[in-house]
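Many introductory courses stop at the sequence. We go one step further.
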Amino acid sequence: MTDVSKVEAVARATWRVAYTGIIPDEVQRRLLDTWYSPESLSRALAAQGSSFLVAESGGRVVGFAQFVRRSAESVELTRIYVLPDRQRSGVGMRLLGAGLTEFAAEGLKYLTVQVERDNRNGRRFYERAGFAEPRELTQDVQGYALALVQYHRPILGSTPVIGQSIT
């Protein structure tokens, strides 16, 4: 995938919905401008140990996920977003399932994710996908303290896949 502007558009549309009332608008803008600039996304696509998956429907990018290998046994889901009008349609689970399939084949054992503590929809998604052992933490990002919950799940075993192609 070379058109990172489509990924940026999904992030911007999704963040407005996901983080309203959780992360102040100005902080959202600052983080989006930093993390989803064409340069930052290009680095993410090329980063060693990173897998970047995109979900398309009718030629339109509707979601994406990035996974980063952290050790010989573990990988972290660093971002997953699906357009608001496509949420609860299985796109997120298919992106997650595609990643789990890839990592099971590599012999990785654990997947972790961090989600904003007050992001109830995100937390429900991860809990339905088999993530457990929540641990609260705080992370300073550009001068703003994010209140997070970190979850873990095994990779081998239950893979939440519902058939749709992920490119």
